[in-house]
Amino acid sequence: MVCSQALMTFLPIVDRELRVAARRHNTYSTRLVVALAGLVICGFFYIVNLRVSGHLLGHYVFQGLSWLALLYCLYAGRRWTADCLSEEKREGTLGLLFLTDLKGCDVVFGKLAATSLNGFYGLLAIFPILALPLLMGGVTNGEFWRVALVLVLAFLFSLAVGIVASAWSRDAREAAGVNFLLLLLVAASLPACAGLMAYFSSSHRVMWGLLVPCPVYPFYLAFDANYPWHKGLFWGSVVVIHTLTWLLVGLASWIVPQFWREQPAGRGANPWRDRWHNWLYGDGDRRRSYRKRLLDVNAFYWLASRVRLKPLGVWAFVGFIACWWVIMVLRLDSKWFDESLSFTTALMISSVLKLWIAIEACQRLAEDRKIGALELLLSTPLSVKDILYGQLLALRRQFLMPVMVAIFAGWLLIVAGGERSFEENARLQAFGIAGIVMLVCDITALIWVAMAAALTVKNPNRASVRTIFQVLILPWLFFLAVSALVGTGTFSSSAKPSWKFYLVLWFNFGILADIAFGFAAWNQLRTRFRSLAFERLSVVRVHK
């Protein structure tokens, strides 16, 4: 009797969440969707490597699927647990759990079970697909099970990092940022030190022991090409990562009961927070002057631009990239307009600016819609056109000048040809002009798609992820797939195409995605803004 009661009171939230998940349809459909996606990807890798010998075919397919599965596992914490506890804090429901006899570990394990069950089922659905290359040859049983072990370990480690970030934070963006920084600190700080020591030392010897906290390292060692010579490092890394996972879960269990309450309000209650707030928003006189100036232009413009120093962060990033470029030129003794360095710099600054704009464009609208403020705004004299125009003004204030500087720098890298042949100059100019045009088109599409996603997705982070996937990632996936098929000569025995073919292919896929998703989002905002904004309220009324 005592034993049965102990079982009933052990992790009660986990028991409840598992019972609820067993009645949800998506608990089972997720496994089917992930398995089908794995089969499609497996078939793609198989077609790409058709000309490879049978022994290597299974090996290449297994490696490709394994690396994609590892990315899925590392993204799990950001997707499922990075905002699970912080969302409860914002909604004020986390404190209700601690009015009972629940402990921190009960809440943490319960949220882990509730949020990550579908993701874990998706991982389990991948394993049968990973086993298919065993039938092709080139993959051993031990290799398969070691990779499966590391994937499960990486998945749990990513969830643990996410739950700690969520326990520490309250804001969704803050939780995502803490999750990313904590993942870098725990999993990448020691490997980065090992890389720096190898780079600056005269012997260039890598201290492999510093790589053990990184989940990528045991995954690399799990393959038969590396495992026989590094068995000790592989199992040592597995033990270290497993220990770190439990330590992170324990840390989250300790943090949750300590930091679930609202901080005391009032002047002087938290001097450091007051100083930070005054630095971001300005003191009373500056806020009043700033508010009057922006309200005279557009009310929503002021709402989306209340943090006065947002543009300073973008300028700081542009300055960092400029310093990095100068340091690389001086350190590597390369030319000022070296082609590889120029392309790397342009890719870094354009990619970060696009990601930043995608996040900012949906943040204000998504948060207002989630808390019901958007319905209140629409009940005022503000029109839909005013709201959209105000959001565009806020984005222009934050990003217009840095983007113009990035375009000017890209144009400067194009015209400063230096000592290059005619063919090299033509290639550089073609890629440079295409990159500038793509930057402008991508930013335009990202803004419209992000604002539309903010009205259709319940979470601001999911809105930004959907936007980035549709406009930025999806064209690259199609480009890489077609390039792999063409480059390996799967369907043709003719000579491989030149760089012009790949440039046109990349540009066309990007422009088509911008037009398709951007126009659809613009039309949705123009015709269905009010209905989408009130959809959350109508759903609540139906349930009542």
Brief digest:
The chain is mainly alpha-helical.
How would you explain this protein's 3D organization?
With 544 residues, this protein is mostly helical. It is built from 23 helices and no strands. Helix 17 (339-371) runs antiparallel to helix 19 (384-415). The protein is globular and about 70 Å long.
Radius of gyration: 26 Å
Number of helices: 23
Main structural class = mainly alpha
Instruction: List the secondary-structure elements in sequence, H or E.
Output: HHHHHHHHHHHHHHHHHHHHHHH
Strand content: under 5%
Helical amount? over 70%
Overall pLDDT: 80
What tags apply to this protein structure?
single chain; 544 residues; mainly alpha; 23 helices; 0% strand; disordered C terminus
Give the secondary structure arrangement, pairings included.
Elements: H1 2-9, H2 12-22, H3 26-48, H4 54-81, H5 84-91, H6 94-97, H7 104-131, H8 133-136, H9 141-168, H10 172-200, H11 216-221, H12 231-259, H13 271-281, H14 284-295, H15 299-304, H16 310-332, H17 339-371, H18 373-378, H19 384-415, H20 422-456, H21 460-487, H22 499-533, H23 535-543
Helix pairs in contact: 2-7, 3-4, 3-7, 4-7, 4-9, 5-9, 7-9, 7-12, 9-10, 9-12, 16-17, 16-19, 17-19, 17-20, 17-21, 19-20, 20-21, 20-22, 21-22
